[in-house]
């Protein structure tokens, strides 16, 4: 979770990212995929270089000086668009160097999602990320292998690539591989967060629905309409089946949980009888 100053810095950096990618203030001949991939590579490089990390995030140094460091380091190594975004990002007030690294990584991911949106593939990418998260979470051995720090990053990402090669969009693959390579979370959770980020890029919220059985199209539409009304935003449903619920559904949106299952009602009744 970002501190207040880092949240403000990230919001400003997002504006710069969108401005550059839309071609209103910088070169428009570099596509969003290239910028996204370069930003992810830059975040990895900065993360692994302590002196550079501090030089770019040191709040005691003038913003112009931090931006100049970024310019010097990146000139000739990345596109002008990426260099402009990183320089602007470094000039902002970050609470810590770790927040700066994570901010650059977040910008890279959002650039790739903007590319998917422009290509009309955002729904497919979101769905692929959700399904991949379910596959990883549903296979304990796979998740352990992907999160095993005794294995090299190259080994872990090669395992993931073997699993999804040719089965998902290239943007989905790039996002998932980066998440597995860089996250401290369980890989399934990290990929799940990417699916939420994909939904947010389209102005939607994600509702994780656990149902005792398959929901019909009419039931899905009715539930989505009700949640859209509650949250005043379009809602994407991600549905899992759990027969142990006996009936009904459990819905989670962000930190909120709505338990409308029969097992949930039985548990409530039991607590009331104690």
TrEMBL record:
<dbReference type="GO" id="GO:0046933">
    <property type="term" value="F:proton-transporting ATP synthase activity, rotational mechanism"/>
</dbReference>
<dbReference type="GO" id="GO:0005886">
    <property type="term" value="C:plasma membrane"/>
</dbReference>
<protein>
    <recommendedName>
        <fullName>ATP synthase subunit delta</fullName>
    </recommendedName>
</protein>
<keyword id="KW-1003">Cell membrane</keyword>
<dbReference type="GO" id="GO:0045259">
    <property type="term" value="C:proton-transporting ATP synthase complex"/>
</dbReference>
<comment type="function">
    <text>F(1)F(0) ATP synthase produces ATP from ADP in the presence of a proton or sodium gradient. F-type ATPases consist of two structural domains, F(1) containing the extramembraneous catalytic core and F(0) containing the membrane proton channel, linked together by a central stalk and a peripheral stalk. During catalysis, ATP synthesis in the catalytic domain of F(1) is coupled via a rotary mechanism of the central stalk subunits to proton translocation.</text>
</comment>
<keyword id="KW-0139">CF(1)</keyword>
<keyword id="KW-0375">Hydrogen ion transport</keyword>
<keyword id="KW-0813">Transport</keyword>
<dbReference type="InterPro" id="IPR020781">
    <property type="entry name" value="ATPase_OSCP/d_CS"/>
</dbReference>
<keyword id="KW-0472">Membrane</keyword>
<dbReference type="Pfam" id="PF00213">
    <property type="entry name" value="OSCP"/>
</dbReference>
<comment type="function">
    <text>This protein is part of the stalk that links CF(0) to CF(1). It either transmits conformational changes from CF(0) to CF(1) or is implicated in proton conduction.</text>
</comment>
<dbReference type="InterPro" id="IPR000711">
    <property type="entry name" value="ATPase_OSCP/dsu"/>
</dbReference>
<comment type="similarity">
    <text>Belongs to the ATPase delta chain family.</text>
</comment>
<dbReference type="InterPro" id="IPR026015">
    <property type="entry name" value="ATP_synth_OSCP/delta_N_sf"/>
</dbReference>
<keyword id="KW-0406">Ion transport</keyword>
<keyword id="KW-0066">ATP synthesis</keyword>
């Amino acid at each position: 979770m970002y501190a207040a100053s880092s949240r403000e810095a990230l919001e400003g950096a997002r504006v710069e990212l969108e401005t550059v990618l839309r071609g209103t203030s910088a070169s428009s001949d570099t596509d969003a995929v290239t910028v996204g991939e370069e930003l992810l590579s830059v975040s990895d490089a900065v993360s692994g270089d302590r002196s550079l990390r501090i030089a770019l995030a040191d709040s005691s140094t003038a913003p112009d000086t931090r931006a100049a460091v970024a310019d010097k380091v990146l000139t000739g190594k990345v596109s002008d668009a990426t260099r402009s975004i990183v320089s602007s990002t470094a000039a902002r007030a970050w609470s810590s160097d770790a927040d700066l690294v994570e901010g650059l990584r977040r910008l890279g991911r959002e650039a790739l999602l903007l590319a998917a949106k422009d290509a009309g593939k955002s729904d497919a990418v979101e769905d692929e990320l959700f399904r991949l998260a379910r596959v990883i979470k549903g296979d304990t051995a796979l998740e352990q292998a992907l999160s095993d720090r005794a294995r090299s990053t190259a080994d872990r990402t090669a395992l993931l690539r073997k699993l999804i090669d040719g089965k998902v969009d290239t943007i989905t693959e790039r996002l998932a591989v980066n998440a597995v390579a860089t996250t401290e979370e369980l890989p399934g959770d990290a990929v799940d967060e990417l699916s939420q980020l994909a939904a947010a890029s389209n102005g939607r919220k994600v509702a994780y629905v656990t149902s005792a059985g398959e929901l019909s199209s009419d039931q899905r539409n009715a539930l989505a309409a009700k949640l859209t009304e509650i949250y005043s935003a379009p809602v994407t449903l991600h549905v899992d089946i759990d027969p142990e619920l006996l009936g009904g559904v459990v819905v989670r949106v962000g930190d909120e949980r709505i338990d409308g299952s029969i097992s949930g009602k039985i548990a409530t009744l039991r607590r009331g009888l104690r």
